[in-house]
Design a protein that fits this description.
Distance between the termini of chain A: 62 Å
Largest sheet of chain B: none
Strand content of chain B: under 5%
Number of strands of chain B: 0
Strand content of chain A: under 5%
Structural class of chain B: mainly alpha
Radius of gyration of chain A: 19 Å
Number of helices of chain A: 11
Low-confidence stretches of chain A: 1-14, 119-124
Mean pLDDT of chain B: 73
Oligomer: heterodimer
Helix content of chain A: 55-70%
């Protein structure tokens, strides 16, 4: 009849302040429909993020991400945004998959990000076509920060929470990664980038 | 590939931010949800949900049946009977230690706690 939130209205304020809070609450009570709406809302962003940090297995990892989120819904307390929490699961899922891949295929070089050179990049017809390949040349933390802050529209704080990194580190990764990505894209497409810089 | 410093670069960080954001936006696929992806994901979620419910229900039934058997059919007498069964198994297998009545009652108590937890989860 009277829940704790009725007696103490501020008790679950944080959870309901999040735009996804109501749906998460319903999903926690076992509503697959509510969870499906969350999947519908976030699937584009999560899949794009995973494509940028893990490549062709992105959709499998995205499904695993949502399944893990369903299992652990009760762990989201509403302190941070649900979006940030979901991306942190996606990030950990991608890291686990990478470790498993590295164990299976020690000679697989697809995850060797700590390099200053672009892996055999041939310039495409437009700068946007090469963005993912340029990102692949960045260290994985920088790439994840760029994918979150520039691709998924997350704030530095949300990215820091999702990646479990200090805020200052995220800001530094964002600035350095951005400059490096733009420099590499300019090398590949000087005219296209010039047109974009000075329209 | 090394970057050529003579090539043009945006000098203003805000311009760089906007430029990179625009490039990300251009490479994003259309914002229409992929229904097949959503269906496949929800199928996995439903499978997990059904499996977990089946496990919970099975455990719940087992615990209730065990408790019912212990409590309705004589309590301590049942425990004694169980103990004798265990002792005969011990004798057959040469095991020197087995659960006594105290351990069996403790086990029943733990099962009771488990049953209460499962009941609360289902509710």
């Amino acid at each position: 009849m009277f829940g704790l939130s009725t007696l103490f209205p501020g008790l679950d304020r944080d959870q309901h302040a999040d735009p996804d809070g109501v749906l998460v609450g319903q999903a926690r009570q076992g509503s697959p429909l509510a969870f499906e709406r969350l999947v519908l809302k976030h699937q584009n962003g999560i899949r794009a993020f995973l494509r940028r940090i893990s490549g062709p297995d992105a959709d499998d990892l995205a499904q695993e991400t949502f399944l893990t989120a369903w299992k652990k819904l009760h762990q989201w307390r509403g302190q941070g945004s649900f979006k940030s929490w979901l991306y942190s699961i996606a990030w950990r899922t991608a890291l686990s998959a990478r470790r498993a891949t590295q164990r299976r295929e020690t000679r697989d070089h697809t995850w060797h990000m700590e390099t200053d050179s672009l892996p055999d990049v041939q310039a495409g017809t437009d700068a946007r076509l090469d963005l993912d390949r340029v990102l692949a040349a960045l260290p994985e933390d920088q790439r994840a920060v760029l994918a979150m802050c520039y691709g998924a529209g997350m704030s530095h704080g949300e990215a820091a929470a999702a990646l479990s990194l200090p805020l200052g580190t995220v800001k530094s990764h964002a600035a350095r990664g951005r400059d490096k990505a733009l420099a590499l894209l300019t090398d590949l497409h000087p005219h296209v980038m010039q047109a974009r810089i000075t329209p | 590939m090394k970057h050529d410093p003579n090539l043009p670069q945006p000098s203003d960080p805000e311009v760089s931010d906007a430029l990179l954001r625009a490039l990300f936006h251009d490479t994003d696929e259309a914002g229409v949800p992929d229904q097949s992806f959503v269906r496949a994901t929800m199928a996995k979620v439903e499978r997990h949900r059904a499996l977990w419910q089946a496990v919970q229900t099975t455990l719940f039934v087992i615990v209730i049946v065990c408790l019912g058997a212990l409590m309705l059919q004589g309590g301590p007498a049942t425990v004694q009977a169980l103990n004798q069964s265990f002792e005969s198994v011990m004798a057959a297998t040469g095991t020197s230690q087995w659960m006594g009545p105290r351990e069996i009652m403790l086990g029943a108590g733990l099962l009771g706690v488990l049953a209460a937890w499962l009941y609360a989860e289902k509710a």
